[in-house]
Amino acid sequence: MDQNALKEQTGKESVKYIKSGMIVGLGTGSTVKYMVDELGKQVQEGKIKDIIGVTTSSRTAKQATDLGITIKDIDDVDHIDLTIDGADEISDDFQGIKGGGGALLWEKIVANASNKVMWIVDESKLVHKLGAFPLPVEVIPFGAQHVFNRLEKKGYKPTWRMDGDQKYRTDENNYIIDLHLGEIDDPKALADELIHMVGIVETGLFLNRVNDVIVGTQNGPKVLHAR
């Protein structure tokens, strides 16, 4: 199977964990797109009823709405039963890098409001240590170049996330700086350092945030229990 087939397999498998009446966090990314497609199909067929979706990006909100899934703003629900989202890297100890799709801030807010978090990935996303995938950092536009320069001086090899010839804008109209670190020895220390840097809104380090991971493999979907 190619990578897209693995993503589709994993996305469809995760819908088995969504039950009628749930409030579900709907993530962002290529694997999640398959999950939302399958969820929409089951809602249309009446197999899953009375669910409410809370999305982590405007892209997912449009996809879900077009499929007939009821969407509410996160501030209009008091909790989320289960969030299903993708990940760009997952280490052996279930720490993650997310934000390759630019939705890291909303993804973290939705994850924080969730009783359970599930990540769905193909097997290429499993790594021993984080860092080969560039770490996204969301920054406000005011003074963003100063933040970039500071990250550069620290040797974090920053690059601007681009959208054509313009800087990429998140759903909150912020910029993203990607850090090319190679390997992250102490993710918690790095997360603490970055989040205390003025101008940085959030980082793509998702630490101690996932309960279960569904991995698409050549032998079928595999469920890993993180906690």
TrEMBL record:
CDD domains per UniProt: RPI_A (cd01398)
Catalytic activity: aldehydo-D-ribose 5-phosphate = D-ribulose 5-phosphate
Keyword Isomerase attached: yes
Coiled coil: none
Leading EC class: isomerase
High-level lineage: Bacteria, Bacillati, Bacillota, Bacilli, Lactobacillales
Assembly and oligomerization: Homodimer.
Organism from which the protein derives: Limosilactobacillus rudii
Biological role: Catalyzes the reversible conversion of ribose-5-phosphate to ribulose 5-phosphate.
GO BP annotation list: pentose-phosphate shunt, non-oxidative branch
Active site location: E107
Keyword tags: Isomerase
Superkingdom of origin: Bacteria
UniProt-recorded name of the protein: Ribose-5-phosphate isomerase A
Binding site for substrate: T28, G29, S30, T31, D85, G86, A87, D88, K98, G99, G100, G101, K125
Entry EC number(s): 5.3.1.6
SUPFAM superfamilies for this protein: D-ribose-5-phosphate isomerase (RpiA), lid domain (SSF75445), NagB/RpiA/CoA transferase-like (SSF100950)
GO-annotated molecular function: ribose-5-phosphate isomerase activity
The protein's annotated pathway: Carbohydrate degradation; pentose phosphate pathway; D-ribose 5-phosphate from D-ribulose 5-phosphate (non-oxidative stage): step 1/1
